[in-house]
Please model this.
Amino acid sequence: MPAGQELADKLKEHALDYKQNVEMKEERVERIEKKSKEFSVKTSEGNYSARTLLFATGTIWKELKVPGHDEFKSKGIQYCALCDGALFKNKIVAVVGGSDSAAKEALVLARYASKVYIIYRGEQIHPEPPNMVRVEKEIEKGKIEIISHTNVKEIKGDKFVTSVMLDKEYNGSKELPLQGVFVSIGHIPLSDLAKDIGVKLNNKNEIIINRNSETNVAGVFAAGDVCDTQFKQAIVGVGEAVSAVYSAYKYIEDNEIVPV
Model:
Protein backbone atom coordinates (compact mmCIF):
# COMPACT_ATOMS: atom_id res chain seq x y z
CA MET A 1 0.00 0.00 0.00
CA PRO A 2 1.51 3.41 -0.96
CA ALA A 3 2.31 6.01 1.68
CA GLY A 4 0.18 9.15 1.92
CA GLN A 5 2.42 11.40 -0.20
CA GLU A 6 2.94 8.67 -2.81
CA LEU A 7 -0.82 8.17 -3.08
CA ALA A 8 -1.36 11.93 -3.45
CA ASP A 9 1.25 12.08 -6.21
CA LYS A 10 -0.42 9.21 -8.08
CA LEU A 11 -3.83 10.91 -7.85
CA LYS A 12 -2.33 14.13 -9.20
CA GLU A 13 -0.63 12.27 -12.03
CA HIS A 14 -3.92 10.53 -12.89
CA ALA A 15 -5.83 13.82 -12.98
CA LEU A 16 -3.26 15.50 -15.22
CA ASP A 17 -3.30 12.53 -17.60
CA TYR A 18 -6.72 13.52 -18.94
CA LYS A 19 -6.77 14.99 -22.45
CA GLN A 20 -8.86 17.89 -21.21
CA ASN A 21 -7.26 21.21 -20.33
CA VAL A 22 -6.53 20.37 -16.67
CA GLU A 23 -4.47 22.87 -14.70
CA MET A 24 -3.57 22.71 -11.03
CA LYS A 25 -2.88 25.77 -8.92
CA GLU A 26 -1.24 25.42 -5.51
CA GLU A 27 -2.36 28.71 -4.02
CA ARG A 28 -4.03 29.74 -0.78
CA VAL A 29 -7.62 30.95 -1.20
CA GLU A 30 -8.11 34.18 0.73
CA ARG A 31 -11.65 35.24 -0.22
CA ILE A 32 -14.66 34.04 -2.20
CA GLU A 33 -17.51 36.24 -3.43
CA LYS A 34 -20.78 35.09 -4.97
CA LYS A 35 -21.70 36.91 -8.19
CA SER A 36 -24.95 36.50 -10.14
CA LYS A 37 -23.98 33.39 -12.11
CA GLU A 38 -20.48 32.67 -10.90
CA PHE A 39 -18.05 32.91 -8.00
CA SER A 40 -15.01 35.16 -7.71
CA VAL A 41 -12.09 33.43 -6.00
CA LYS A 42 -9.18 35.53 -4.74
CA THR A 43 -5.98 33.66 -3.91
CA SER A 44 -2.55 34.69 -2.73
CA GLU A 45 -1.48 34.78 -6.38
CA GLY A 46 -4.44 36.11 -8.33
CA ASN A 47 -8.17 36.10 -9.08
CA TYR A 48 -10.30 33.41 -10.72
CA SER A 49 -13.91 33.02 -11.83
CA ALA A 50 -15.80 29.74 -11.40
CA ARG A 51 -19.30 28.48 -12.12
CA THR A 52 -19.13 25.84 -9.38
CA LEU A 53 -17.12 25.36 -6.20
CA LEU A 54 -16.13 22.23 -4.30
CA PHE A 55 -14.96 22.66 -0.71
CA ALA A 56 -12.62 19.88 0.43
CA THR A 57 -10.83 21.97 3.03
CA GLY A 58 -10.84 19.33 5.78
CA THR A 59 -10.27 19.93 9.46
CA ILE A 60 -7.43 20.43 11.87
CA TRP A 61 -7.23 18.42 15.08
CA LYS A 62 -7.36 20.28 18.36
CA GLU A 63 -3.89 19.64 19.68
CA LEU A 64 -2.86 18.90 23.24
CA LYS A 65 -0.92 22.04 24.05
CA VAL A 66 1.44 20.71 26.70
CA PRO A 67 5.25 20.43 26.92
CA GLY A 68 6.50 17.49 24.88
CA HIS A 69 3.69 17.54 22.33
CA ASP A 70 5.68 18.98 19.44
CA GLU A 71 8.73 16.88 20.26
CA PHE A 72 6.88 13.55 20.27
CA LYS A 73 4.15 14.15 17.70
CA SER A 74 4.02 11.01 15.52
CA LYS A 75 6.57 9.50 17.91
CA GLY A 76 3.98 8.18 20.33
CA ILE A 77 1.56 11.10 20.18
CA GLN A 78 -1.08 10.19 17.60
CA TYR A 79 -4.48 11.43 16.44
CA CYS A 80 -6.06 8.38 14.78
CA ALA A 81 -6.43 4.96 16.42
CA LEU A 82 -7.86 3.44 13.25
CA CYS A 83 -4.77 4.57 11.34
CA ASP A 84 -2.06 3.87 13.91
CA GLY A 85 -3.50 1.51 16.51
CA ALA A 86 -1.75 -1.57 15.10
CA LEU A 87 1.61 0.07 15.78
CA PHE A 88 0.93 -0.18 19.52
CA LYS A 89 0.34 -3.91 19.79
CA ASN A 90 0.94 -5.14 23.36
CA LYS A 91 1.85 -1.61 24.51
CA ILE A 92 0.32 0.65 27.14
CA VAL A 93 -1.46 3.68 25.70
CA ALA A 94 -3.76 6.50 26.77
CA VAL A 95 -6.64 8.30 25.08
CA VAL A 96 -7.06 11.92 26.13
CA GLY A 97 -10.70 13.02 25.96
CA GLY A 98 -14.15 11.99 27.12
CA SER A 99 -16.43 12.21 24.08
CA ASP A 100 -17.94 9.47 21.95
CA SER A 101 -14.96 9.82 19.61
CA ALA A 102 -12.57 9.25 22.51
CA ALA A 103 -14.48 6.13 23.55
CA LYS A 104 -14.37 4.76 20.00
CA GLU A 105 -10.62 5.44 19.86
CA ALA A 106 -10.18 3.50 23.11
CA LEU A 107 -12.24 0.59 21.78
CA VAL A 108 -10.11 0.37 18.65
CA LEU A 109 -6.92 0.51 20.70
CA ALA A 110 -8.18 -2.20 23.05
CA ARG A 111 -7.87 -4.65 20.14
CA TYR A 112 -4.12 -4.09 20.03
CA ALA A 113 -2.76 -2.56 23.22
CA SER A 114 -2.24 -4.45 26.46
CA LYS A 115 -3.78 -1.55 28.42
CA VAL A 116 -5.73 1.57 27.47
CA TYR A 117 -6.19 4.49 29.85
CA ILE A 118 -8.87 7.09 29.13
CA ILE A 119 -7.73 10.34 30.74
CA TYR A 120 -10.56 12.83 31.05
CA ARG A 121 -10.74 16.17 32.81
CA GLY A 122 -14.44 15.73 33.65
CA GLU A 123 -16.28 13.50 36.06
CA GLN A 124 -17.49 10.86 33.60
CA ILE A 125 -16.93 10.15 29.93
CA HIS A 126 -20.00 10.68 27.74
CA PRO A 127 -20.05 8.39 24.69
CA GLU A 128 -23.18 7.18 22.93
CA PRO A 129 -24.94 4.51 25.08
CA PRO A 130 -23.89 1.51 22.91
CA ASN A 131 -20.26 2.59 23.04
CA MET A 132 -20.48 3.12 26.79
CA VAL A 133 -21.64 -0.49 27.12
CA ARG A 134 -18.68 -1.64 25.02
CA VAL A 135 -16.26 0.41 27.12
CA GLU A 136 -17.69 -1.06 30.34
CA LYS A 137 -17.14 -4.58 28.98
CA GLU A 138 -13.50 -3.74 28.26
CA ILE A 139 -13.17 -2.27 31.76
CA GLU A 140 -14.41 -5.58 33.18
CA LYS A 141 -11.72 -7.38 31.18
CA GLY A 142 -9.07 -5.02 32.53
CA LYS A 143 -8.24 -3.67 29.05
CA ILE A 144 -9.58 -0.14 29.60
CA GLU A 145 -9.24 2.02 32.70
CA ILE A 146 -10.70 5.51 33.15
CA ILE A 147 -8.79 8.25 34.96
CA SER A 148 -11.27 11.08 35.57
CA HIS A 149 -10.89 14.62 36.93
CA THR A 150 -7.37 14.60 35.54
CA ASN A 151 -5.37 16.53 32.94
CA VAL A 152 -2.16 15.67 31.14
CA LYS A 153 0.38 18.37 32.00
CA GLU A 154 3.47 17.08 30.16
CA ILE A 155 4.54 14.29 27.82
CA LYS A 156 7.94 12.76 28.43
CA GLY A 157 10.13 10.42 26.48
CA ASP A 158 13.46 9.60 24.88
CA LYS A 159 13.17 8.96 21.13
CA PHE A 160 9.52 8.04 21.70
CA VAL A 161 6.93 8.64 24.42
CA THR A 162 7.65 6.89 27.70
CA SER A 163 5.23 8.56 30.14
CA VAL A 164 2.86 11.42 30.85
CA MET A 165 2.75 13.74 33.82
CA LEU A 166 -0.69 14.25 35.37
CA ASP A 167 -1.97 17.18 37.41
CA LYS A 168 -2.92 14.86 40.28
CA GLU A 169 -1.68 11.56 41.61
CA TYR A 170 -2.98 8.29 40.21
CA ASN A 171 -2.09 5.13 42.11
CA GLY A 172 0.38 7.12 44.17
CA SER A 173 2.23 8.93 41.39
CA LYS A 174 1.72 11.85 39.01
CA GLU A 175 3.83 10.08 36.37
CA LEU A 176 2.02 7.44 34.31
CA PRO A 177 4.30 5.14 32.27
CA LEU A 178 3.03 4.37 28.75
CA GLN A 179 4.17 4.22 25.13
CA GLY A 180 1.43 6.04 23.29
CA VAL A 181 -0.93 9.00 23.67
CA PHE A 182 -3.95 9.31 21.38
CA VAL A 183 -5.46 12.78 21.49
CA SER A 184 -9.22 12.97 20.95
CA ILE A 185 -10.34 16.38 22.14
CA GLY A 186 -12.12 17.42 18.96
CA HIS A 187 -11.35 18.96 15.58
CA ILE A 188 -11.89 22.31 13.89
CA PRO A 189 -13.60 22.29 10.46
CA LEU A 190 -12.02 24.71 7.99
CA SER A 191 -15.35 26.08 6.80
CA ASP A 192 -15.01 29.86 7.14
CA LEU A 193 -14.73 30.50 3.40
CA ALA A 194 -17.92 28.51 2.77
CA LYS A 195 -19.74 30.34 5.55
CA ASP A 196 -18.82 33.69 4.00
CA ILE A 197 -20.89 32.91 0.87
CA GLY A 198 -23.94 31.68 2.78
CA VAL A 199 -23.29 27.95 3.01
CA LYS A 200 -25.14 26.46 5.98
CA LEU A 201 -23.13 24.88 8.77
CA ASN A 202 -24.21 22.70 11.68
CA ASN A 203 -23.50 23.48 15.34
CA LYS A 204 -19.99 22.02 14.92
CA ASN A 205 -19.28 24.40 12.02
CA GLU A 206 -19.31 21.48 9.57
CA ILE A 207 -20.73 22.05 6.08
CA ILE A 208 -24.16 20.47 5.71
CA ILE A 209 -24.44 18.35 2.54
CA ASN A 210 -26.99 15.96 1.09
CA ARG A 211 -26.28 12.53 -0.40
CA ASN A 212 -25.20 14.23 -3.65
CA SER A 213 -22.63 16.37 -1.81
CA GLU A 214 -24.71 19.50 -2.51
CA THR A 215 -24.88 22.42 -0.09
CA ASN A 216 -27.76 24.87 0.27
CA VAL A 217 -26.06 27.28 -2.16
CA ALA A 218 -26.59 26.46 -5.83
CA GLY A 219 -23.34 25.51 -7.52
CA VAL A 220 -21.49 24.87 -4.26
CA PHE A 221 -20.52 21.35 -3.21
CA ALA A 222 -18.42 19.87 -0.43
CA ALA A 223 -16.64 16.65 0.46
CA GLY A 224 -14.47 15.15 3.18
CA ASP A 225 -13.90 15.91 6.84
CA VAL A 226 -15.21 19.49 6.58
CA CYS A 227 -18.70 18.04 6.00
CA ASP A 228 -21.28 16.85 8.52
CA THR A 229 -20.62 13.20 7.65
CA GLN A 230 -20.28 11.14 10.81
CA PHE A 231 -17.52 8.77 9.64
CA LYS A 232 -14.32 10.76 9.05
CA GLN A 233 -12.16 8.57 6.84
CA ALA A 234 -10.30 9.17 3.57
CA ILE A 235 -12.33 6.62 1.63
CA VAL A 236 -15.58 8.35 2.68
CA GLY A 237 -14.24 11.73 1.60
CA VAL A 238 -13.18 10.31 -1.77
CA GLY A 239 -16.68 8.93 -2.34
CA GLU A 240 -18.23 12.29 -1.43
CA ALA A 241 -15.81 14.03 -3.82
CA VAL A 242 -16.85 11.74 -6.68
CA SER A 243 -20.51 12.58 -5.98
CA ALA A 244 -19.65 16.26 -5.75
CA VAL A 245 -17.83 16.34 -9.08
CA TYR A 246 -20.65 14.50 -10.82
CA SER A 247 -23.21 16.83 -9.21
CA ALA A 248 -21.20 19.86 -10.35
CA TYR A 249 -21.09 18.49 -13.89
CA LYS A 250 -24.87 17.94 -13.85
CA TYR A 251 -25.42 21.43 -12.43
CA ILE A 252 -23.51 22.98 -15.32
CA GLU A 253 -25.23 20.74 -17.85
CA ASP A 254 -28.75 21.26 -16.49
CA ASN A 255 -28.30 25.02 -16.37
CA GLU A 256 -26.82 25.09 -19.87
CA ILE A 257 -23.81 27.00 -18.62
CA VAL A 258 -21.13 27.42 -21.24
CA PRO A 259 -17.72 26.60 -19.70
CA VAL A 260 -15.54 29.64 -19.05
In short: The chain is about 25% helix and 25% strand. The first strand starts at residue 29 and ends at 34.
